[in-house]
Structures are given as structure tokens and as C-alpha cells.
Prior knowledge:
single chain, 464 residues, alpha/beta, Rossmann fold, 2 domains, nine-stranded mixed beta sheet, six-stranded parallel beta sheet, 18 strands, 38% helix
Amino acid sequence: MRVLVVSPEAGPWPSASTLADSVNALVSAYLELGTEVRVYSPMYHRENEPKSLISDIYQGFERIRGEAFSIGTIPKSPYYFVQHAGYFDRSGPYNDVDHIPFWDNHYRFSLLASAALLHALETGFIPDLIHCHEWGGALTAAYARHAYADAFGKIPVFLTIHNLEYDFHFLEHDIERVGLDRADYHIDGFEFWGKVSMLKAGILYADKVVFPSDGYRRQVLEHDFAGGLRGFLELNQAKVTSSQYGIDYSAWASFPVTDGVVHKQKAKEKFQQEHGLSVDSSFLVYCHLDRETMRTADTLFTILTDLFHLPLQLVIGLPAEHTERDYFQALAQQNSGRMALILLEQGTRNHRAALAASDLLFLAQTDEPSASLILKALANGVIPLTCHNLGCADLLISFEGENLDKADAILVQDPWPDQMLRSLRMALDLYSSDRQDWNRLVQNALTFKYSWEKSASTYLQWII
């Protein structure tokens, strides 16, 4: 089986983004399942340092505007890079140094989609599935149905939307220049408030529109997100689905499932020593604060005073540039021995060490994407405290007092401060009064598995 992947970001670069990490992991999973894969993405200016790894293998002219491009690849890898100095040798993938989107993003990512299909066609790579990602890869679906329909018209196209709030709109007079059919320029097509939405074009022509968790799929159909596409997704609801994204257990699981509780206690003691916490059996609560978990921060601020009246230790993980970093550092100093701050540097070391040591993940989210954080917590025997409608919550079993043999999470109806605090106290009471019962929950969490291979197999099963 063959899969052709088109993504605005992908490749084994040190500066990989969250999107690139997800695409790379899914590609690795496809390969593990014995699938032949090609991944097409732009060769950006920021990748100049490792460019010596790239071998130029092709030069051609794509079909939409007849633009010249070249293809480079890393030998013996599935990654192919569309090269065009005028489009991709810039300050960033999508925006300039002032964070303003490049005006010609529709031309840039039109080239990506068209070049990927042309190169695949001319080198004999006719796939069983075309898998495109985000608005930057969305035009692949349109071209497979029109400009390249002679080769790809009957091949299923899946569009994965990692974050619905990202899109790019361009002026109506460029419709033909981007190779779209003007007949579909209307409210039920790719028109969006007098402009063209690249994401709507992808949704319109794709056979399946896939979100990375079922919780996210439900939310975009039931709530109005910033992108303004709820109505259009409802119109196309028959093809809107989900494939839960997994995690890499070799990177995130800190210890084996067998004797995991024992290993976890040792990890806690080591973490406490390294981060100035009292070395004891205190209930350790981890709270992860980044751009995608801002509502957790709001809830945490509301109940901080209450938390410090409880017999627990608090660990806050946040990026170095977080706006409240100075505040949390001062708070940690004031609560020496009971609170620690970790910076989420690139890679997994700090984050995984905090999860390995923690007993509870405090995640007061009402929207996505946050599912991967829950899966990473479970892989380290951390019980997630979160709400019923979040991401992978459908896969979890909430502790209800009598289901210790199955429960692996604590789920509230709504992540309001009072509900979160009440459930946290309940977890602390169980931990303090009956450690053996608490450890049963921990063992259940460690047993839970949702790998990237499982995610990839879902895509493949849809085309069999």
C-alpha cells in the first residue's frame, strides 16, 4: 500500500513544530505498518543548516501556473522537499518577522500541492491514499480532483485538520491563478466573506475531513471556533470524522508497566531532590501551561490559595517565554519545598521527568488540542483530572468510587474551579487514606496505550 503525504511542515529537523512532529510521527507509524510513504513539504530557509543532507533529484514545471521548482530528498528517507527560493527562502513558514502572513501564501502552498502531485506522477508513485494536512496542504485535494484528475481523480483524499483556527484567505480574482473552479465559489463552496478560504477548498474536495480526536470533532461541530467554519463543517458532516492521535511510547513512557508503581516512587524522590521539593510522599500535582492550555491557567489562578492549604506539592511546567513566568518563579520561592517550576525546553526531558514524578495532572480545558498531554500523563502513571468533553476523554474511564479495577482518570462535567477543586480533594483523600487503591488507578493508567501505529491503521482501514 502507498500513501502520499502533503504537509506545510514535515521532516527530521531539530526545529520541528508541533505540526511537523505529528506528521513525522504518523509517517513513522505508516512505515512501521509496512506502508510505502512519500512526504512532500517545502524546503524553508530555516533549514539551510542541514541542507547539505539534501540531494537534488528533480526539476520541473507544475501544471497550475507553469512555475519552475525542484525536488530534494534525504537519501533513504521518505521525505521530499519542494524547493523554490522565491517562495520558501523567507523568515518563516507562513509569516514575516512582524507575524503578518505573507500576502502570497496561496501561491506558495499552491506550488507545494501541485509540485507534489506532479513529481509523484512523473516518478511513478501512484498512491492508494493522498493524505494532506492543514490549510497549507489543503489545495492537494482540489488538484487531485481537477488539474491532476487524470492520474489521481479516483484516489481517496483525506484532509487532517490539526487546528481549525488556522486558515488563509485570498482575493477572489486569484481563483483561476490558484487552479480552482470558479463554479465552486459560493457559500457552500470555498467562498468565505468575499474571499477564498484555502481550508474550505480542502474540506470541499476531500473525501474525509479528519480531526485528531473525537472530542475535537464534536467540539468543532457543536461550538463556534475562531475560524468561523462550523456551518460549513455541519454541511459536510457526513465526511467529518476523527482518528485519535497517539504518542511515541519510546519517548514518553518513563518506566515499564511491570512494577511501575515502584519505579514511579523512585522517580518522584529524584525529581523532588533535583527541584528543591521536600523529599517525602506528598501528593504531587502537575499543571502544564502553554499556549494551548490557557484556560487551565485561568482556573489555576482562581484556586491557588486553596491549593496551598492542602497537603500537596505543585509543579508548574511552562515555556520560557510564558507571560506569567516571573510570577510563578516568585510564587515558587515563597512556597519553597512545596512548589517547583520547570521550563519546557525543546525535547522531552523536563516534561517527562515532571510527569514521571507526578500523581495527578490538573487540566481544566474545555477545548482542543490537549489530548496528547493526557496520553503522555497516562504513560507515566499520572491520573488526569479533566473534563468529560475533552479530546480523548471518550477513551478514558472515570473513577466513580467503586470501579478501581478499570478507572484511569477523574473526569468532571465542566472544568469550573469549584468542580476541579472538589475532585482534586477527592483524589487527595483517596491517595492519603488508601494508597493501595490509588496505586490501582496508577497501574490502570500505565496499562493504557494508544500508539501512533493505531492512529495510522485507522486511516488505512478506511481505504481497504
